[in-house]
Amino acid sequence: MSSRDTDWDGVRLHVVTGKGGTGKTTVAAALALALAADGRKVLLVEVEGRQGIAQIFDLPPLPYEERRIAVAPGGGDVHALAIDPEEAMLEYLEMFYGMRRAGRALSKMGIVDFATTIAPGFRDVLVTGKTTEAVRRKGKNGKRIYDAVVLDAPPTGRVARFLNVTNEVAGLARVGPIKNHADLVNGVVSSPETAVHFVTLLEEMPVQETLDGITELRRVGLPVGGVFINMVRGALLPQATLDAASAGRFDPADLALGLKAAGLTDGGSKATALADALAREVEEHARRTELEHQERASLDAAGRPRYELPLLADGVDLAGLYELAEAIRTQGAA
Predict the structure, then answer these.
(1) What is the torsion angle, in degrees rounded to the nearest 10, for the CA atoms of residue 134, residue 146, residue 157 and residue 56?
(2) 212 with 227: CB under 8 angstroms?
(3) How, if at all, do strands 13-18 and 194-200 pair?
(4) How far is residue 75's CA from residue 234's CA, in Å, rounded to a whole number?
(5) For 227, how many CA atoms within 13 A lie in the half-sphere containing its CB?
(6) For residues 83 and 244, what is the distance between their CA atoms, to the nearest angstrom?
(7) What residues pair up with 14 in beta bridges, in sequence order?
């Protein structure tokens, strides 16, 4: 297994969050592929019950067990786990009370679901507990089973509460197994072994939610990772043209002459109408590009490493995931 310097050396739990619609699960999957490259073993964990990992890797729905789902560049392995809170609770009962059989009886009676519904903090402890157990787990040789774990976490607005499990269970238990379990989870989540990454688009609402999320994590003392800007469009026009369009100095008449010189029109009213339509497109593109520059500046103010992932023209498929993974590695995030 080769070694290389990255921005997150020493981090073993990569939590990925983002506003809905930003491609959070896609980025988590691509990050897992990037981290697994060159012979590493990575676990990709899903907690929201959407089977997003299965969809993005074009697989049947994942059971509640760890299984290999992809081979990374250079021969590494990506394993996946879709956590089911009820199954996690049964494991918890077995681990701390030796009550797995009784737990199944409780499950049939609906008590397990009732417990996690009236105490959502307990549900989060179960889910994060399963994830952090995978981070800590060692084989018979004393080495960690996984080189890294990537957690496809809840959206930005809920991630601080989801991860801040010690406070979440404070009202449930001050001593005993639940409190000890939460402390074990918190020991991983709040340590330098963890980084919480944000996925955003270059749009006002997701950028503001990202900045608010970073502020909230810092407030509760959780480790802030990097910012992944997803679906970035490449430059379509020279900067001088964009500047002219933004300043209202883009002349459609020049565009009409250019179209005629290129043999695309023969002049006349149709050429003028086409030039006017194209000029409006150029002006709209210039305005959008200027807004994207402003959003980048806002993200820069957060002082976190920033990575840009391209908009995939053909949508997100397996080939696209590998393309995004390569972009992540090229920029030093994995």
Answers:
(1) -110
(2) no
(3) parallel
(4) 31
(5) 26
(6) 53
(7) 150, 195
**Can you read off the two tokens belonging to residue 284?**
């709209």
pLDDT at residue 86 in the model: 73
Per the CB < 8 A criterion, the answer to whether 131 and 151 are in contact is yes
Measured from the Cβ of residue 318, the count of other Cβ atoms closer than 10 Å reads 13
Question: Nearest 10 degrees: CA dihedral of 21, 27, 30, 34?
Answer: 170
- pLDDT score at 111: 52
Two tokens, residue 78: 């990506």
- Look at residues 68, 188, 195, 63 and name the one whose alpha carbon lies nearest to residue 131: 188
The CATH number corresponding to 13-233+311-330 among 3.40.50.11030, 3.40.50.300, 3.20.20.70, 3.40.50.1110 equals 3.40.50.300
d(CA 167, CA 176): 15
How far is the C-alpha of 235 from the C-alpha of 156, rounded, in Å? 29
- Blockwise average pLDDT, block size 10, the chain, 334 residues: 78 97 97 97 94 95 95 95 81 62 54 56 81 95 97 96 79 68 88 98 98 97 97 84 77 75 73 80 83 94 97 91 97 96
Calculate the alpha carbon distances from 180 to 5, 169, 186 in Å.
35, 10, 10
Enter the tokens of residue 94: 């077995």
- Picking from 299, 90, 104, 300, the residue whose alpha carbon sits closest to that of residue 210 is 299
Angle (CA) 30-77-12 rounded to 5° is: 70
Strand partners, 206: none
Nearest residue to 64 (alpha-carbon basis) of 148, 8, 127: 127
Burial of 76 (0-12, 13-18, 19+ CB in 10 A): buried
Smallest Cα–Cα separation from 306: which of 200, 148, 192?
200
Q: What pTM was estimated for this model as a whole? A: 0.86
